[in-house]
């Protein structure tokens, strides 16, 4: 029940008559970009859901080592804030 060869040809001819040969490639590009953006948006939504389901990772080894060093030495560095 899909669209077979003759139906695609008929659709292409009607589109060619309506939009002209110069405008048809631009319409194809615009349609391709729209589909690509839609896929990226849906993938982004799925990725956001996956991130919410997974627990946050524990602190890294370097963060833990620097925290232990601060406790052992009793010194803490003050870093200037970037504006």
From TrEMBL:
<keyword id="KW-1133">Transmembrane helix</keyword>
<comment type="function">
    <text>Part of the twin-arginine translocation (Tat) system that transports large folded proteins containing a characteristic twin-arginine motif in their signal peptide across membranes. TatA could form the protein-conducting channel of the Tat system.</text>
</comment>
<keyword id="KW-0812">Transmembrane</keyword>
<feature type="compositionally biased region" description="Basic and acidic residues">
    <location>
        <begin position="69"/>
        <end position="83"/>
    </location>
</feature>
<feature type="region of interest" description="Disordered">
    <location>
        <begin position="43"/>
        <end position="83"/>
    </location>
</feature>
<keyword id="KW-0811">Translocation</keyword>
<feature type="transmembrane region" description="Helical">
    <location>
        <begin position="6"/>
        <end position="24"/>
    </location>
</feature>
<keyword id="KW-0813">Transport</keyword>
<protein>
    <recommendedName>
        <fullName>Sec-independent protein translocase protein TatA</fullName>
    </recommendedName>
</protein>
<dbReference type="Pfam" id="PF02416">
    <property type="entry name" value="TatA_B_E"/>
</dbReference>
<comment type="subunit">
    <text>Forms a complex with TatC.</text>
</comment>
<comment type="similarity">
    <text>Belongs to the TatA/E family.</text>
</comment>
<feature type="compositionally biased region" description="Low complexity">
    <location>
        <begin position="57"/>
        <end position="68"/>
    </location>
</feature>
<keyword id="KW-0472">Membrane</keyword>
<dbReference type="InterPro" id="IPR006312">
    <property type="entry name" value="TatA/E"/>
</dbReference>
<dbReference type="InterPro" id="IPR003369">
    <property type="entry name" value="TatA/B/E"/>
</dbReference>
<keyword id="KW-1003">Cell membrane</keyword>
<keyword id="KW-0653">Protein transport</keyword>
């Amino acid at each position: 029940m899909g669209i077979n060869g003759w139906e695609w040809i008929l659709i292409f001819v009607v589109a060619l008559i309506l939009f002209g040969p110069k405008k048809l490639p631009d319409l194809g590009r615009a349609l391709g970009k729209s589909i690509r953006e839609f896929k990226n948006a849906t993938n982004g939504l799925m990725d956001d859901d996956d991130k919410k389901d997974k627990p946050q990772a524990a602190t890294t080894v370097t963060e833990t080592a620097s925290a232990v060093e601060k406790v052992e030495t009793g010194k803490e560095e003050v870093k200037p804030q970037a504006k």
